[in-house]
């Protein structure tokens, strides 16, 4: 069985060798740039790990795995444009180096290239794989729309938020695992169980991100702490805070949320203080644990040798207990 680190090296090598030597160069240079600035490559690694539960010839799935990574980066490219983000992974975003129109068009090209690579699979599996990928891509659009709508609301519920992150984040991890399983020849039951693994892992993964934005170590996390606080992002932490706060805490939270002029460090410090008073770090960790346990339980039911699951379980643990 391949370790996650080995699969990461394999997928990075494959991506670095992909040929974008086409014209016009202005369309393809941003794609090369986006893929060159790295990332955790979680989705293609999960796809290959699921495949590796059943087969060892990883090279057979590399094109499909690259397609998933390309699709993920397409969503990030467009997200950065919608969020007006200046940096991604410590590097300037595409719309900052080039412009908004280039970001839109190069992103569209990445989406089409992703479909092309994902369709590079055995013909007897192609319709099932493309149907799953297409539905997943639609769900991600739904999640992104909900996320944008939540920015305009102060009454987002915990249930609504969890559904949004299921759509925006979890479904692609779930689809990656299921596609890998299907291409590896897994039974329908195993493929569905691995989809459940990815779904629960994805929700826990996003909750961890919410937590790290407040309580993470900025040196390890790789970006400034408190970004979600400064843009009033409706995270699990903020939603729970608004629900659990007493009158004084609620008043102070709304003062900071509605403030037009403020010192950023002061806002982060005071909202974090309220979160800490409410015990929200522990509450979020307990919520994560529920989804983590559900992911572990689903993996335990997959009908392959227990030793074969160890690498995937280690990957899940690494994602849950990460500090970045």
Helix and strand run: HHHHEEHHHHHHHHHHHH
Low-confidence stretches: none
**Helical stretch tally:** 16
Structural class: mainly alpha
What form results from the Cα inertia axes? globular
Average predicted local confidence, pLDDT: 94
Largest sheet: 2 strands, antiparallel
Number of strands: 2
Write a structural description.
By secondary structure, the protein is mostly helical. The protein has helices spanning 4-16, 25-36, 42-52, 62-83, 94-97, 100-118, 123-150, 158-184, 188-215, 218-221, 227-230, 236-244, 247-258, 264-277, 280-300, 310-320, and strands spanning 87-88, 91-92. Helix 1 (4-16) crosses helix 4, helix 8 crosses helix 9 and helix 9 runs antiparallel to helix 15. The protein starts with a helix and ends with a helix.
What order do the helices and strands come in, and which of them pair?
Elements: H1 4-16, H2 25-36, H3 42-52, H4 62-83, E1 87-88, E2 91-92, H5 94-97, H6 100-118, H7 123-150, H8 158-184, H9 188-215, H10 218-221, H11 227-230, H12 236-244, H13 247-258, H14 264-277, H15 280-300, H16 310-320
Antiparallel strand pairs: 1-2
Helix pairs in contact: 1-3, 1-4, 2-6, 3-4, 3-8, 4-6, 7-8, 8-9, 9-15
